[in-house]
């Protein structure tokens, strides 16, 4: 069933929840409606399972990138963006990001689905925040930077769906890393001046 779940995930990723019809999901998975319901429950349950699958695949990659450079939060954020840009450039997967695609449709999702999307964004923010935590900056600054990095990640996904080139996306990521570095350097300077 994991192959069918992966195919269903691709349909939601490409089309979004609203346009992922049961016929399209059935065609992609090779399962008829009855088998689809029997295996995964209704469309909402299948969607949540696809979100979980996506989060397990890419969340593990994000976690690895963000924890690979302890004590160097800027390098951790650079590694995070490298993973994101590699996923975006991978011709084997749909353009963009399932989470970004789903977040854009949050108002049309059922509450449970919308909450799960928000929870996945929050989890990503917590991962980024943990990577930044070694920096000597005020908690509010770290919170703001973590939110900023997640916002840039989601923006990269949207821009890629709109046809932005790899060079354009890398430029955005580079500027985001510069912003993180400059903000953390400014916070460290303030600490020294106040110390």
Could you characterize what this model shows?
Keywords: DNA-binding, Transcription, Transcription regulation. Pfam families: TetR_C_13, TetR_N. Residues 21-40 bind DNA. Residues 1-58 form the HTH tetR-type domain. By secondary structure, the chain is mainly α. The protein has helices at 2-19, 22-29, 33-40, 43-67, 73-89, 98-104, 111-132, 139-161, 166-194. Helix 4 (43-67) runs parallel beside helix 7 (111-132), helix 5 packs parallel to helix 8 (139-161) and helix 5 (73-89) runs antiparallel to helix 9.
Helix-strand layout with pairing:
Blueprint: H1 2-19, H2 22-29, H3 33-40, H4 43-67, H5 73-89, H6 98-104, H7 111-132, H8 139-161, H9 166-194
Helix pairs in contact: 1-2, 1-4, 1-6, 4-5, 4-7, 5-8, 5-9, 7-8, 8-9
Structure summary:
The chain is mainly α and 195 residues long.
Features:
mainly alpha, TetR_C, 9 helices, transcription regulation
Query: Which range does the strand content fall in?
Result: under 5%
Helix-strand string: HHHHHHHHH
CATH fold group: Tetracycline Repressor, domain 2
Mean pLDDT: 93
- Identify the CATH class: Mainly Alpha
Main beta sheet: strand number and arrangement?
none
Could you tell me the radius of gyration in angstroms? 19 Å
By DSSP, the count of extended strands is 0
CATH architecture classification name: Orthogonal Bundle
CATH superfamily membership = Tetracycline Repressor, domain 2
Uncertain segments: none
Number of DSSP helices? 9
Tell the overall outline: elongated
Strand-pairing-aware structural class: mainly alpha
Keywords: DNA-binding, Transcription, Transcription regulation
InterPro entries: DNA-bd_HTH_TetR-type_CS, Homeodomain-like_sf, HTH_TetR, Tet_transcr_reg_TetR-rel_C_sf, TetR_C
Organism: Actinomadura vinacea
Protein name: TetR/AcrR family transcriptional regulator
